[in-house]
């Protein structure tokens, strides 16, 4: 099967979770012996995929604004030139019109439609995603929760939506500690961006409440893009207790997971939620949210809390780091649960969806 992939967003600086997921899926599709892959986007894609066909015709800038125009004007013509069986658009970035082959578009969530994104990104997604969803032959999403959200906010035929769960990178599932990074001796870990829906303010405040009770000697470590500005955004009583690392490599991230005493992730809204699964796979017990996709993804292998209740988050932190028996139970459950999410399994499901879409249009 000849698959085109709209890889316009792959070359952004410090890619977020949705882009990283797209990159993982693309590599797995390339690795298959029964596929021929053509990537569309800026020529810098060659650095990521040196042995794969890259068509960067008319994509003369890696500016995302320019890319939006290129996607609508040039991409449909490039697709026709390559005689594809299907075009996969992994970040909600489908062409504006139907094209010569079926379109499969991945929409991770509808946070922009719900006002949970910000700035120009939210404005663009509110306009482009509903239109793209109507144009696409098939919609891929990452959880049953996100599927239900789309049925509510995008008015899509449910038969048009396929759920493909994300996977955990082999790095996190394998033995080894990763690359050392300077960390406190005992700490709690949060991984995510400064987006308000990640609930970082309440994570910090819950941590401070737990510290005031003198029950935990831990620091709080925060990892993720744009997190260097955390002290401008959130009031912190004692900045010495909060360590902000910003963006790190995957090997360093694994080291941080492995050595954390708990992973705290009471997000207000997630279409999937990969970081807590990565933490589980590294043997770190998880505190997650009882809302959005997290109960579906984490099951009974984590403590699930009401994310707007700071006191509940704080109590879960204290319980997890002081009750060794319960902590051990969650570590074992988490490791076992995480094993069910692999990119190999995810990629096979996605390939089946692409194949079905191709056959259906034919």
UniProtKB/TrEMBL annotation:
Q: Where is the Glycosyl transferase family domain?
A: 184-336
Q: What InterPro entries does its record include?
A: Glyco_trans_1, Glyco_trans_4-like_N
Tell me the protein's name.
Answer: Glycosyltransferase family 1 protein
PANTHER family documented for this protein: GLYCOSYLTRANSFERASE WBBK-RELATED
Asked whether the keyword Glycosyltransferase is assigned, the reply is no
Gene Ontology MF terms in the entry:
glycosyltransferase activity
Where is each Glycosyltransferase subfamily 4-like N-terminal domain found?
33-169
Question: What are the record keywords, sorted?
Answer: Transferase
Q: Which organism is it from?
A: Natrarchaeobius chitinivorans
Instruction: Please name one Pfam family that this protein belongs to.
Output: Glyco_transf_4
What residue ranges carry the coiled-coil annotation?
none
**rRNA processing: is it a keyword of this entry?**
no
